[in-house]
């Protein structure tokens, strides 16, 4: 299983006794390919809950709602020792704080669904895991206990992708510098994929990178957004609460430059857009300045390494929303991140320039 929808990951496979909307009996919910535990419902697009609120089905006609303490699970065949990213779409049913726990034991991660990142009412997310065996259990569960039994997260479009570790570049200390290696993205979904908190750089849905904050950052593609370089980039959609970082290998006391592309995703994001960039003990604020010829600009920070590993990080200075709906979250785009040793060549150039200027000054004096 390299990259694909998991069996019946979109919940569109018809149960043997039909979908609930067409079933004659009120028997237990059967969901082909999935085991269920607790109150699990197959919901249909356009269906309403008791309060009259329309249920949001991310894509297609059907999705699954998990009631209090309910779960669905499926056994997957994978490659032992490999790292995988699971992409899924999720929506909340009620206004209360809802969350979704995604686990491949012993790994487990809870995704907070309280923040809605766009007006469509649902978002794609991704989590990652390292396969401890060639058979694993993928489990989605609702850890909450809401007063209203009709509340609970809705999930849809569950896909999996084996992650390949990118080669280490020779002239750049940053791993996966262009964000080209990452989770599965549905080609016909224009919302990108949210990367929630992940503090493990070795098992990350975005190899090499960590998300070390409460809120998510958005992984975007060139099919639906303006991307500075290649096919993928990161949009910082959560202000100072959405930080992406990497520990890069450096040589102590050497001078380095951090360079990156700063851009606008062309998703009607309201300006100003600005990024705070960190490199070791240096921090610098960069504002995106529109150019008629380009949707991005190159920014740089010079720093002296203090250790054999140096932290680089980015967050959005502002909390931005789109101008068309005033509520969908957006922000500046970061791409093509490079850290390179800049001391020796620069110093040689400066010395040569200094010698040259001194020579010409000496000749002028003689004249």
Automatic annotation (TrEMBL):
Matching InterPro entries: DGR2-like_dom (IPR006946), Galactose-bd-like_sf (IPR008979), Pectin_Meth_Modulator (IPR052437)
Membrane-spanning residues: 349-366
A Gene Ontology cellular-component term: plasma membrane
Ranges where the record places region Disordered: 1-30
The name this protein goes by in its record: DUF642 domain-containing protein
One Pfam family this sequence matches: DUF642
Domain DUF642, first and last residues per copy: 5-161, 196-339
Primary location: secreted
Keywords linked to the UniProt accession: Cell wall, Glycoprotein, Membrane, Secreted, Signal, Transmembrane, Transmembrane helix
Domain of life, per lineage: Eukaryota
Species per Swiss-Prot/TrEMBL record: Corchorus capsularis (Jute)
Protein location: Secreted, Cell wall
């Amino acid at each position: 299983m390299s990259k694909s929808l998991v069996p019946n990951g979109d919940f569109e496979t018809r149960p043997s006794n039909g979908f609930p909307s067409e079933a004659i009996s009120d028997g237990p919910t059967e969901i082909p390919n999935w085991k269920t535990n607790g109150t699990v419902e197959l919901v249909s697009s356009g269906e309403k809950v008791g309060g009259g609120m329309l249920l949001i089905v991310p894509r297609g006609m059907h999705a699954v709602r998990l009631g209090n303490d309910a779960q669905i699970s499926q056994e997957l065949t994978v490659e032992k020792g490999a790292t995988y990213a699971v992409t899924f779409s999720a929506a909340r049913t009620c206004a209360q704080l809802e969350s979704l726990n995604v686990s491949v034991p012993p790994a487990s991660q809870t995704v907070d669904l309280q923040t809605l990142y766009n007006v469509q009412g649902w978002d794609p997310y991704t989590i990652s895991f390292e396969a401890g065996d060639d058979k694993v259990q993928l489990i989605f569960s609702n850890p909450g206990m809401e007063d209203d039994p009709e509340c609970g997260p809705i999930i849809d479009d569950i896909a999996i992708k084996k992650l390949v570790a990118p080669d280490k570049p020779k002239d750049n200390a940053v791993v996966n510098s262009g964000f080209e290696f990452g989770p599965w993205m549905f080609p016909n979904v224009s919302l990108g994929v949210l990367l929630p908190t992940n503090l493990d750089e070795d098992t990350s849905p975005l190899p090499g990178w960590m998300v070390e904050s409460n809120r998510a950052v958005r992984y975007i593609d060139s099919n639906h957004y303006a991307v500075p370089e290649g096919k993928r980039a990161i949009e910082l959609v959560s202000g100072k609460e959405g930080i992406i970082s990497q520990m890069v290998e450096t040589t102590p006391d050497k001078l380095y430059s951090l360079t990156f592309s700063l851009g606008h995703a062309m998703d009607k994001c309201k300006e100003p857009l600005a990024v705070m960039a960190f490199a070791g003990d240096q921090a610098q604020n960069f504002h995106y300045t529109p150019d008629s010829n380009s949707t991005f600009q190159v920014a740089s920070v010079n720093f002296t390494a203090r250790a054999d590993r140096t932290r680089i990080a980015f967050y959005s200075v502002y909390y931005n929303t789109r101008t068309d709906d005033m509520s969908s979250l957006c922000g500046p785009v970061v791409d093509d991140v490079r850290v390179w040793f800049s001391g020796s060549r620069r110093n040689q150039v400066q010395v040569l320039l200094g010698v040259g200027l001194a020579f010409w000054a000496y000749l002028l004096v003689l004249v």
